[in-house]
Inverse folding.
């Protein structure tokens, strides 16, 4: 089968749009494998921070969703395993060579593994971090947020702008949220739109955080049923 690239948006000079999106292994609310619909959403961004991306589970017939998205978007995927070697988080960016760090996070009793993928392209001053925190029956994601914060503090201390995005499974104002904010990153859309579940949103648990040196020009939570989460698209002034 020929996979033809989808049309991608051209950014306004001096801006970058970043998407944070939990893909639910490529399955929409209706239970269909809908990677093409996901790609159309991500095509509105230049960088995608994605979670729950599947690289070959039998649940979707062994398809490598991330490889399909690479071809549809014409970008390179930088992947970090979480639950197992074929399920995790990724940064999709137009860069064939990057510096990359993959950080597994302690589970603290959560059923599913978690991690953070830290990527910086050779010609980009921005460091991108994609993550997906997994709640436990005890403290939610509080302990895991502290583990992530320790990584973020090192990334921020390295200098330069940083963008963090993903499904955090935390509410604004919670202890986990304040732990992330204490690293020096700021919520790109405080008090923003609800993101989960996609068909009847009742919680805001998907976020983009940025360092204060990045000006947020626009935030959009797009209405789509291509996953059980809604994507968050943030346009930044990047000079």
């Amino acid at each position: 089968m020929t996979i033809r690239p989808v049309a991608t948006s051209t950014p306004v000079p001096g801006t970058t749009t970043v998407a944070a999106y939990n893909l639910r292994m490529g399955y929409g609310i209706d239970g269909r494998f809908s990677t093409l619909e996901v790609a159309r959403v991500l095509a509105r961004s230049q960088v995608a921070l994605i979670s729950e991306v599947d690289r070959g589970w039998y649940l979707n017939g062994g398809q490598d969703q991330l490889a399909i998205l690479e071809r549809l978007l014409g970008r390179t995927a930088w992947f970090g395993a979480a639950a197992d070697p074929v399920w995790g988080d990724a940064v999709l960016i137009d860069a064939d060579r990057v510096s990359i760090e993959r950080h597994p996070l302690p589970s603290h009793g959560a059923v599913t593994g978690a991690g953070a993928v830290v990527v910086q392209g050779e010609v980009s001053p921005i460091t991108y971090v994609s993550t997906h925190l997994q709640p436990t029956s005890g403290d939610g994601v509080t302990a895991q947020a502290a583990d992530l914060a320790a990584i973020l503090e090192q990334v921020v201390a390295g200098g330069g702008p940083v963008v963090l995005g993903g499904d955090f499974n935390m509410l604004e104002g919670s202890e986990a949220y304040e732990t992330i904010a204490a690293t020096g990153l700021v919520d790109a859309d405080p008090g923003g739109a609800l993101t989960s579940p996609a068909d009847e949103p009742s919680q805001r648990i998907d976020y983009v955080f940025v360092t204060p040196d990045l000006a947020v020009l626009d935030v959009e939570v797009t209405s789509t049923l291509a996953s059980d989460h809604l994507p968050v698209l943030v346009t930044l002034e990047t000079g």
